[in-house]
């Protein structure tokens, strides 16, 4: 067993034992589930945050593991990072719970694993937030940096992890935040899905959080349509990763029974590597190339993928939603439909079509406008949506 996994397992066991000694239910005892409430800290240790290798930042950071909830509603433990500017400010400050885009399936791909070395892909965008004086909580998502497989592209699991990262940051004494900190939610691509799910789940799952707004971009709001778009294309690797992610969240789907030898080899390879390698490995693969039968034709797979569809519940706080017109990975029509669904349900949505750039350029060009929009929400400025 990997040393990091052994250490985590021992700490988790201690946490469970502590919880049992303090009134954990017999059901949790029998299931061996982690103790505590969603957002409770399991472990915390100082780490460092570097946008680039060796680049100093006026921040303090902590690697944390915290209680969260799986897509099926059972307790789990997720890792992440809390980053706080060292600017002399005391008391509550804005907190952004930040959902990164696709990093891969291997534990080494986790954002927390790259922050000390300046290798996490979106660290420069996160630094833009800390330079504004905001604290940032960055989830690793379920199964990245913790035992088990990453439940990649499984919306409810991601939404829980994002909201519980904010709870955990507020409960981390060293961070100096607390429940009075206003919260913003932010993410693009996979992070757009995760932040969108956090927005939809906020009022039912974490209503105590003072969420002022969510900024989500490049959102794969409909996985079936996104899968169809990427079958045989440059984003085919994401499709294979999403299949592995849903199989991790729902083992009864039995992905291995649909894969041929090539497909099993590809999935096993992707579970050990990060996004750039996995994208190259999956280029132009068709579902028919790696399966003996198409899982997307199976009712249980369709149900599982539809369970990650966004737009069924209106966020109760304002949303800044943006999508590239020529996005080559997530169809523009998918983002536009999410806007229509949320607007139809009465959400306060500011929609922005990005006329220039493909998928990756969207997160870069829109990072400042999205953060400016959040700054207005933190300042108490009213949000004017453009649904009409």
UniProtKB/TrEMBL annotation:
Residues 1-21 form the signal peptide. GO terms for molecular function: triacylglycerol lipase activity. GO terms for biological process: lipid catabolic process. InterPro entries: AB_hydrolase_fold, Lipase_secreted. Keywords: Signal. It comes from the Bacteria. This is Lipase. It comes from Streptomyces cinnamoneus. The lineage of its organism: Bacteria, Bacillati, Actinomycetota, Actinomycetes, Kitasatosporales.
């Amino acid at each position: 067993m990997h040393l990091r996994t052994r250490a985590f397992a021992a700490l988790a066991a201690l946490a469970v034992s502590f919880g049992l000694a303090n009134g954990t239910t017999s059901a949790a005892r029998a299931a061996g589930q982690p103790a505590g409430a969603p957002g409770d800290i399991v472990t915390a240790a100082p780490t460092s945050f570097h946008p680039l290798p060796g680049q100093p930042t006026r921040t303090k950071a902590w690697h944390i593991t915290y209680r969260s909830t799986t897509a099926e509603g059972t307790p789990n433990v997720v890792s992440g990072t809390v980053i706080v500017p060292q600017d002399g400010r005391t008391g509550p400050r804005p907190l952004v719970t930040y959902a990164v885009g696709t990093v891969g399936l291997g534990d080494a791909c986790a954002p927390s694993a790259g922050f000390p070395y300046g290798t996490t892909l979106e660290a420069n965008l996160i630094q833009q937030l800390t330079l504004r004086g905001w604290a940032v909580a960055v989830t690793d998502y379920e199964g990245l940096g913790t035992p088990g497989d990453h439940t990649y592209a499984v919306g409810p699991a991601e939404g829980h992890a994002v909201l519980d990262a904010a709870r955990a940051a507020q409960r981390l004494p060293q961070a100096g935040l607390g429940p009075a900190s206003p919260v913003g939610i932010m993410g693009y691509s996979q992070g757009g899905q995760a932040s969108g799910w956090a927005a939809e789940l906020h009022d039912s799952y974490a209503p105590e959080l003072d969420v002022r707004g969510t900024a989500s971009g490049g959102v794969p709001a409909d996985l079936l349509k996104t899968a169809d778009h990427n079958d045989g294309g440059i984003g085919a690797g994401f499709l294979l990763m999403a299949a592995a992610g849903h199989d991790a969240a729902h083992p009864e789907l039995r992905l291995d029974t649909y894969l041929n030898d090539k497909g099993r080899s590809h999935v096993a390879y992707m579970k050990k590597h990060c996004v750039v390698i996995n994208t190259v490995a999956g280029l132009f693969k068709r579902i028919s190339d790696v399966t003996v039968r198409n899982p997307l034709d199976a009712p249980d797979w369709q149900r599982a993928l539809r369970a990650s569809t966004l737009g069924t519940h209106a966020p109760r706080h304002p949303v800044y939603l943006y999508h590239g017109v020529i996005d080559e990975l997530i169809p523009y029509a998918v983002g536009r439909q999410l806007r229509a669904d949320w607007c139809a349900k009465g959400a306060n949505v500011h929609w922005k079509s990005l006329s220039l750039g493909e998928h990756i350029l969207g997160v870069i060009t829109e990072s400042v406008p999205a953060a400016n929009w959040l700054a207005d929400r933190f300042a108490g400025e009213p949000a004017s949506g453009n649904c009409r």
